[in-house]
Request: fold
Amino acid sequence: MPDHYNWAAVDDYIAERLIGDDPVQAATLASNQAAGLPAIDVSFPQGKMLQLLARGAGAKRILEIGTLGGFSTIWLARALPKDGRLLTLELDPAYAKVASANIAHAGLSGKTEVRVGPALDSLRQMIDDDVPKFDFVFVDADKENYPAYFELSLKLCRNGGMLLFDNVVRDGEVINPTSDDPKVPGARALYDALHANPNATATAIQTVGEKEWDGFLLAVVGREEES
Ligand code: SAH
Ligand code: DHB
Ligand code: MG
Reply:
């Protein structure tokens, strides 16, 4: 068994060969660090994966739940066409301020909105307002609310649209029903919700890397026979 020490080095290799220098996103992480934000952003390879998934899906309207400093936001917004829009939801106004500055530095303010407040409130308001449907939703906020974010995102996403959830493996703790990681029950409840819901079809992929052992869950909205 190779030591997990190599995971970050392999991420570096992937980034060097397939991503290249990205001074804008390097500046994003530097500004996050300077502002004291926790380094819980997606990795470079994961961020580019988000971008390519959104671009491959032809997403014109993207919703993100959990902005932090906007690192994943910027990857996703880069996938948008000229008239595309991204809305990202963040609880902490100080984080949102850092994110807005990073997004401006990336030249993406014109197509990106950072909305401050509890995501559940913003999502319910958008459902009440009957906003146009999203094509792609990235969920990466408080894990306790993942099942609620799933149910609300289903209502906000078009048929055939994609929902992507971060942090659904948590060092393998996801298979432990009595895990003392408080973020695990929320992830498990998400799997339960998908198991029980015929209106989305999903899989999850485990990841290792700079962010250690975790995973993404990808769901496509709509009954399988209709997609
Ligand atoms: N997507 C980011 C990382 C997000 S970290 C990236 O990869 O770059 C999770 C974020 O969710 C934190 O910024 C946290 O403040 C935010 N968050 C936590 N609870 C929330 C809630 N109830 N509503 C909205 N955002 C929340
Ligand atoms: C945490 C949150 C994340 O979104 C992540 O990718 C890693 C860690 C956390 O809250 O600990
Ligand atoms: Mg995450």
